[in-house]
Amino acid sequence: MAEINRKRKKICQMCAGKDVDYKNVDVIKKYVSADKGKILPRRITGNCAKHQRMITAQIKRARFMALIPFTK
Hints:
By secondary structure, this protein is mostly helical. The chain contains 3 helices and no strands. It has helices at residues 25-28, 42-45, 49-64.
């Protein structure tokens, strides 16, 4: 009997009620890779397309305001 390796679908944290703001650096860092500072894709974070675009804008805003670095 073959086992099927299925991963649970990740739910969007924004749709669940959490909010991301560019001033909240601790939350923003969860959506940026630790080694290179790149924005993590939807398939890894589990966000919906609408909220991924919002998170991307908030990360770029935080970078511009020098709250997080562009690269590591």
